[in-house]
Amino acid sequence: MTDYDEIRKHVEANSQTYLNSLKEACSIPSVSTEGTGFKEMADWLEQRLGGLGATVSRLSVDGSPEALLGVIPGSGDRTLMIYDHYDVQPVDPIDLWESPPFEPTERDGRMFARGAADNKGDLVARISALGIYKELVGDLPFTIKFFIEGEEESGSVHFEKICQKYASELASDDCVWEGGWFDLDGAPQMYFGCKGLLYIELNARKLSGDQHSSIAVYAPSAAWQLLRAVASIKDSDDSIIIEGFHDGVSEPTPEEVALVDKIPFNESATLESLGAESFLGGLTGTELKRNMIFTPTANIAGFHSGYGVPGASKTVLPAEAMAKLDFRLVPDQDAEDIAKKLMSHLERNGFGDVEVRVLSAQNPSRSPIDTKLGLAARNSAQKWFPKETAVFPQMWATGPMYPIAQGLGIPICSPPGVGRPDSNLHAPNEHCRIPDYLSIVGYTVAYLEEYGRA
Amino acid sequence: MTDYDEIRKHVEANSQTYLNSLKEACSIPSVSTEGTGFKEMADWLEQRLGGLGATVSRLSVDGSPEALLGVIPGSGDRTLMIYDHYDVQPVDPIDLWESPPFEPTERDGRMFARGAADNKGDLVARISALGIYKELVGDLPFTIKFFIEGEEESGSVHFEKICQKYASELASDDCVWEGGWFDLDGAPQMYFGCKGLLYIELNARKLSGDQHSSIAVYAPSAAWQLLRAVASIKDSDDSIIIEGFHDGVSEPTPEEVALVDKIPFNESATLESLGAESFLGGLTGTELKRNMIFTPTANIAGFHSGYGVPGASKTVLPAEAMAKLDFRLVPDQDAEDIAKKLMSHLERNGFGDVEVRVLSAQNPSRSPIDTKLGLAARNSAQKWFPKETAVFPQMWATGPMYPIAQGLGIPICSPPGVGRPDSNLHAPNEHCRIPDYLSIVGYTVAYLEEYGRA
User: Fold this and answer.
1) B4: which of A318, A342, B37, B106 is 20 to 30 A away, CA to CA?
2) Which chain B residues have a beta carbon less than 8 Å from that of A199?
3) How far is A251 from chain B (nearest CA, A)?
4) The whole model's pTM is what?
5) Strands A188-191 and A143-149
6) pLDDT digits (tens, 9 = 90+) for B84-143
7) B215 part of contact set with chain A, CB < 8 Å
8) Which residues on B lie below 8 Å from A300 (Cβ)?
9) d(CA B3, CA B130)
10) Burial B82-97 (b: 16+ CB within 10 A, else e)
């Protein structure tokens, strides 16, 4: 067994190298919704993985960006998949960034850049860790398959097809997922599942063009129609009232509930970090935590219609309105089924003329927590991190776990990763704390070593 | 009495001159919400009015753009005010214009330009008519006061104060208002009143910044809050359910109802022009017409929150949301009073944290129809236009009539003007039909002549 102090010293001595790698990765604007920087990012990764002895191939299906598969051969029969994504979220609103999103900047002990936390931080930490592993531990006693997709941030639209097409190339015994978190108090978190995501765009059009608002007295309004359609989805207590929406929800087991009740959650620090006065519905304590993990959501990601210059007046009746909704689903809801139920709900409630476009549909997923990888990641986390690690049977965010865990039958564990709740994921001034990043580099060496001995 | 044929021949012979004047006026981008082109437009008008023998002064109060007062002295005791505005609406969405909004373009017998119909068309037609009057009829037997304001399209915020400050300079016996319309069948329309306008901006903020949408399970949503706040204003039948909203509404008299019932309204042509399938609430016939004139509205002029790129996904929980509402009010509702009732309504229904900004508050107005000006405009309209003129005791749009009609006690008549319902007022590709414009030039000569003899 490798001495943890040895790993720590090695990471500390070479920290600038690992930070420079992260900066290089975060300088490349690989925004999946805009299709920029993809080739550059894939080439950078291929070169890095090649340096670790990987044979890299590019996986794609019709219309998809390329996913990378980097196979680093090792002795023994076991294969460990490491899943990450090389795409990032869009940067708007750009004017709220304190430093340019693709010019990684160290400030206050943090690294600011789009992707620093989601998920180039984890990806580069893992690549760095493998270099250390080879130096400190030696040859791999298992094969590693880096599987890095390019459209996670736009809903992994083709991911399931890629998994199906390349099922034999991807075959593995366990899967390390995109990293978990530290909470606001620095306590690590790991995950064995995720919520699903149904991302919908709704469009209403009632007129061929915008009109003077005085005729709103007789002309129909797309904005009112869409506003009412969206409002019809939840009651005033934020419960989703689409008929049949909760049919597929599986009650959590007592063990799962117990794990969730043990999760530390600093309510006041979270509220302060959000700039919020209270949590949704005024929840606190175990009720808040259980709700967080086991409850599906209907979020308004966007709603746009008509004139929008702050402080100015334009008396217009807008011809059209657009809303973007994301539903976070829990096991065993089925995303496509929920989309159909939403359409029936709109139809039944007089909103049949609202156009519904499904932009993303990912199913929720849950894996067992007692796999070889799960035990290695938990054991080494308890030893590596000063604070106790919280174990989530399922996180409140979404990843495309389903095609791997349920589709290919590879159980997943998402060990602690570089982000925190205040890392501004998907928002301006995304960042990770530099000590968190370096800690994850070392921790990855630790659990890979333990997995190799398991 | 002047021969109408003589007027028609004169207008026809000099039509290019009147069109060139309109083009000149519409080339100047006097957008009130943006404050552009104002000096240029005022200078142009001062030069034109000066050519008619007017003494032009500029009226303003703190923070207002300058209104122009051009006094053309005439014999006799009577004074006729002619009200118009020299500002225009913003041009966005600019990419839907087929020709640049400030490069007036003749196409299909129409003049396309921002302001061509609202209201530079009427204004330039009237200036042109005065030139003809002097040539064909001679000296004026009454004084004319051109009163041309510069912020009608941004809610005439300072107009009432200007009227109060310059009450003695503005004193008149009658007021010709910004022009009426032709309907889609070419039948002229005139107005003796207007609806009021309350323009409100609502802002909700629940978080200090945008967040990853997965935390929508516990973080409050400004978009949901504002959407529900707006939805609470009307019931599903489009009735406004703000407590006390209808308290000030005065029942129309049987004479007013009879006038409205006589108004021609081509339902199928209107629907076709709007690209709409049916009228709001499925109304038709007299019910539709009475609703149009006598019913107040709550229009969503804009609603904006979060991500808005069509077809793309961003899983964001937006920190804030903004809505713009315009209420069209009917006599004798009071705009400021309605604003207070809206705030109480929001407070009572759990939306007290939504910020309310009143951007414009104009009261509704109605004048008697049997004034010297009203009779002259009606009589000459019946003789000038081939189709019967519809008389509206009150129009469904808004103008700042209240400070003139109720504030200064000058009764108002709005004679037929250059626009039609499909002129795209406030929208891309605003235009007027060239024959309509030239007809209004001649008609103005006719009713001024009749008013002079009354």
Assistant:
1) B106
2) 313, 315
3) 17
4) 0.79
5) unpaired
6) 999 999 998 899 999 999 999 999 999 999 999 999 999 999 999 999 999 999 999 999
7) yes
8) 221, 223-224, 227, 305-306, 318
9) 16
10) bbbbbbbbbbbeeeeb
